[in-house]
Write a structure and sequence with these properties.
With 164 residues, this protein is mainly alpha-helical. The chain has helices at residues 3-15, 17-27, 31-48, 58-80, 100-114, 118-128, 133-140, 144-162. Residues 12-79 form the RNA polymerase sigma-70 region domain.
Amino acid sequence: MRTSDEAQFVGLLKENQNIIHKICRLYTTDEDSHKDLFQEITIQLWKAYPNFRGDSKFTTWAYRVGLNTAITLYRKKKKTIDTIEFDSSFHKVKEDDYNYEEEEQLKLLYGAVSELNDIEKALVFLYLEDKDYTEISATLGISEVNARVKMNRVKGKLKKILNP
């Protein structure tokens, strides 16, 4: 790979690293797993970058590579190791900036989302990222109609989980 390509990749990665962190938060429960998954997604993005043609936005492509990597690793890990409960103590926030009510709502949401299957988690994640159904379908490799149908079903599932 040329030096200019490397610089371009590093720049795009820096601009969009929050995408990777959000995926990691969705599929991991502790800081070490988060770091490991972040590193693995970054490696997979780097390996796949020479094949990135620019047919879609970099973010759409990064979501797709990141989610596929996370799902693959999550499935492998799930077969051998149990995950631990989410612990909010890993997140250091100034006391005056911390919103306890929002944190409780996030815990409830993440708890409900953790009960979904891998594809449903990815769908919710992209939906919460305000991605339109065109981008969601491109990222997940499904039709736009299928994405809408799946999202409606997932919303129903989440309502049942959150309001039994």
